[in-house]
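dumping the sequnces here before i forget
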Amino acid sequence: MADRPVPVVEKRLMDVKLGELGTWLGGRDFTPNGLISALRKGHDRYYNKYINVKKGGFGGIAMLLAGYVALSYLWEYDHIKHDRWRKYH
Amino acid sequence: MNPKQLILASNIQTHLCLQRHLLVTFFKTGALLCSRDVSRGFLVYPPSLRLFAEGHAEAETRLPSGATTRHFHPSNMLSRLVLVSASSLKGSGALGAGLIQASRSLHTSSQSLAPVPPLPEKGGKVRHGIIPEELFQLLYPKTGVTGPYMLGVGLLTYILSKEIYVINHETFAAASIGAVFIYGVKKFGPSVAAFADKLNEDKVAKAQEVKDLAMTSLAQAIEDEKKEQWRAEGRSVLFDAKRNNVAMLLETNYRERLHMVTNEVKRRLDYQIALQNLHRQMEQEHMVSWVEKSVISSITPQQEKESIAKCITDLKALAKATQAKATA
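..and the predicted 3d for all of it:
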């Protein structure tokens, strides 16, 4: 199917097979430059898909808000733990 | 928070370094993306809304610097969300403006900038406002249409029963806020969208106006140029006309002079004729008067008396004759 063998590290995450996951993770660029470029690319992809369009819907920022809510719940979990109704689940 | 702050600081540091050493580190196509967005590097930190909006405000002041991919877009951003969100968060753009100045001179893209590809019409589909459509598409082959909903219900049950999500006072607050939020969005969403679209349309209309004006003025300039060229072609006719004028002037001048010459010659000749006539006339008169004088002087008084007597007798005879005729 592939026209030429692509090295594992360069594949997108969805195309990496489970067995190759270790190699893939090991070969990724974890230098600060690499991290920042990865974050920036991710931001660009999200931005250009959901926000930088002519008729953007509400989902673009709603997803970010939901993510923010989820993340802040996660950071506060140690504090919220004390409000649990039962001790043993 | 300290490690996070350290990472923040180090990333800021690396960003400033990056700006200065851009050409060295960012030569690949991936680097082109990075160099493009060095002005928005501050965005990649905690996804808080304010920083995100800072990016929007910055982005509004971006220069057009497109490339063949969708990632580069003109500065007058036409997305609805940006218009609505950035209009209320303009203040945070001050920092970004300075970075933009630095980044403008560092764009090393060799791809052509125009024409910039148009923005896509609609964004990625999102179901129920927060779940991207891709999840549903991913699960459809294996679980059909209800798969993701089942997944959602199962997850919800799990986190509630294990109290990974704890129900407390905040739950009630979140529910109320969520209800009001959703009600607001459902009620005012379309009108806000229409408003933003109208703003967009105004921008586009203005740009189109400018473009049309430029086109008409250039077309007019082309017409004028063609007219001038046509006029230039007629210059041979113009010169012919001028040549004719000059020839006519010469001709009239020549004829005037000819007339003048003939008149002068005729005057001189007339003068000579008059002179001769006068001469002859004077001679004649003189001769006649001399003859008369000599004749009169030759008439003696004896002859005079005789002639007078003869005249009287003649007159008498004549009178008699006429009298006789009158009575007869």
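Chain A has a mean pLDDT of 83.
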